[in-house]
Every structure is written in C-alpha cells, then in structure tokens.
Amino acid sequence: MEKVKKALGEVWAKQPEGRTVIAIDGLSRSGKTTLSKSIAEYLSVQNIPYKLFHIDDLIVERMRRYGTGRDEWQEYYFLQWEIETLQEQFFGKLKTETEISLAFYDSGLDSHVSKKIRLPAAGIVLIEGVFLQRPEWRRYFDAAFYLDCPKEQRFERESEAAKRNSRKFADRYWKAEQYYEEIVRPKERADWVIQSGPEIGETT
C-alpha cells in the first residue's frame, strides 16, 4: 500500500488545483473493491476530497444483457453497460461538471434510480471496476491502476454457489476477460500494475 500511496501522490501533484480522475481496473475478484476502500480511507485521513464510483452500480437491466441472442461473453463485455451513454453522461463530465445525474442499478427491482451526485471542486475521483480501460473510456482517466491476479486465485475467491456454475464463468466471464486482455491489453496500458495476492501487493 505504501507504493500505492506514493503513486497517488505523484498523480495528485500534477493537478493539485483540479479534479484528478483515477481508474482502479482489474478482472473479476482481483481485489479492486478492497483497494478502492483502502485508497478512500487514506484520502480521508489526508483530508483530500474524493468521490468513489463503482462501475457495476451503472449496469443495465437483465433483459438487456441476458438472452439477447449474442454470445454470452459478448453480452457481458458489450451490453453490460451503455458504453457510449456512460462515455457522454458520466466519464465526459467528470472534469467539467460540479454535479452529474446518474441512473444507479437496483438489483432487487431490476431497474434504475436516478441520483444527483456532487463532485469535489478539487480532489480525486476514483472509479473502480472491470474493463475500465476499454478504448471508449480510457482517455478520461488521468491515471489507471491495474490489479493483476491469476484466474485460478480469483475463482477461489468466488462463493461456493458461484463455483458450482463453472459453465457460466467459462462461457460468459472468462471469454470476455480474455478478449479484454488480448485486444485492449490493460496491463500494458495501465500506469501502475498491482500484484494482487492473498493481500494486495506492491505496484510495478
């Protein structure tokens, strides 16, 4: 975590009077949420204003991402989010607007709740989630962390119920992740790579 703090300091020093947007990227169960919480706690202690977003809060309804006729991995990668809408209404406004309206997904209702979110005038905006460095979104980040963790280790972090449905992982999640790794090459594009073990490790 010490090197993560140092990396944050380097990014923050470049834009101390504005808003800095940082991606916390990585594949499923790589430790993104854990790292984002640790960073948020650190920023609070340092009295640095911040706002944390989870990209999974902004997914679409089930009928738009399941049973669409496309391959399951394509549904996950291309249809899980409204890619262009988020580009325009979310990522594209993070540096220019003081308040943005977002449709947050409610899994219990399988619908959305619109919320207005105020952004710090000067501070850090953290966005945590998978596939964040896709071409449509990458240019909106001042910096990106990528959590690197073997697939076998990530799968072990899943619930027992999830592990029993290995076909879904093979057909939906892993194929989409493989596409992301091969086409986007997020590990190479990231500013810092974090080796994620039993505990989050050091940056490289």
Automatic annotation (TrEMBL):
Keyword Kinase annotated: yes
InterPro entries reported in the protein's UniProt record: P-loop_NTPase (IPR027417)
Keyword vocabulary terms for this entry: Kinase, Transferase
Cited SUPFAM superfamilies: P-loop containing nucleoside triphosphate hydrolases (SSF52540)
Example of a GO MF term: kinase activity
Keyword Flavoprotein attached: no
Gene3D superfamilies referenced in this protein's UniProt entry, alphabetically: P-loop containing nucleotide triphosphate hydrolases
Pfam families recorded: AAA_18 (PF13238)
Name the record gives this protein: Kinase
Protein source organism: Planococcus chinensis
Lineage per the UniProt record: Bacteria, Bacillati, Bacillota, Bacilli, Bacillales
